[in-house]
Request: fold
Amino acid sequence: MVEKVRTAELGDSARDVAMLMNKYQIGCAIIVDDGKSVGIITERDMLKRVICKGITPEKVKAADIMTKPLVNAPSNMQAGDAAKIMLKWNIKKLPIVDDGRLVGLVTLTDLLRSEGVIETLNGCALNGVSKHLKKTISIYFDDSKQHMRKCPLMFKDGYSMGCSLKKCMWWTGDECAVTKLSRQVELEHIDEEEDEVSCITE
Reply:
């Protein structure tokens, strides 16, 4: 799970939440009330409940557009069981809560990448699961589709091509150089954030 979870208050405007998500480049924000997690706002919530309805972001509160009640799981839950919960509720982000305290967040993609989760889900009925989630799951169930994820650097006739693994010029050793560089940049970004926090504290 990701331990640094960004939160917003019930009274914050949709614009405040959007600015928060944009600042930290995240796909959702947990809404809290008096320290307790009560809802979640995702990019999809913003699109459906604000943008598509033509509502002025400054005039609508987080409480009015958040998804509730908040579906969550404890940190000691097995990854496969957490994935089952997400399929049951048709969600791709799952807050992790211990003793009423928000301690982290996992995504369905994170869980599907975890060892043994695909095997746990194998044979599970997908009745009622949204097409959006089924598409995400199918990528990890089908090995051939895993290798067809889009590459940001390789284009043909104006279209992004699928990953060709070791056949690609960007493949170094046992992984993609782009993936490796992205991971390093992300770690450096986290270090910079921690340095900023420590400077403010000092």
